[in-house]
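Q: I'm a student working through a structural biology exercise. My instructor gave each of us a protein and asked us to get a predicted structure, then write a short paragraph describing it. Mine is Transcriptional regulator, ArsR family. I'm not confident about reading structure output yet, so if you can add a plain explanation after the tokens, that would really help. Here is the sequence I was given:
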Amino acid sequence: MMLTVAESTVSELADIFRLLGDTTRLRITLCCRAHPIAVGDIAASLDISPSLVSHHLRLLRAARIVTADRQGKQVFYFVSDSHISRMVASMLEHLDEPHLDLD
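A: Happy to help. First, here is the predicted structure for Transcriptional regulator, ArsR family. I'll explain a few features afterward.
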């Protein structure tokens, strides 16, 4: 049985993978998985500038990968939903699996 997926859906999915294909954006997404985290804390943990973090977060928010929650003067970011969390967790598990050499 062949699964049919609309071309627009395939294109949108490719955009998400393209966004997460950038190591900085992937690292930011990983930072946002456990709990809401502020831009300054992300920047400090990744040793990059807050302005660069904000730039990447804007792209991740546009793709609905992360969500923002303003609390007073600070904005906290977290992974938007369980689908993103599960996808990242599944890929991390995939990397931990033993590799089968098919040659």
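A: Here are two points you could use in your paragraph. DSSP finds five helices and three strands in the chain. The domain at 26-92 is CATH 1.10.10.10 (Arc Repressor Mutant, subunit A). It's a good idea to check both against the output above yourself.
Q: Great, thank you!
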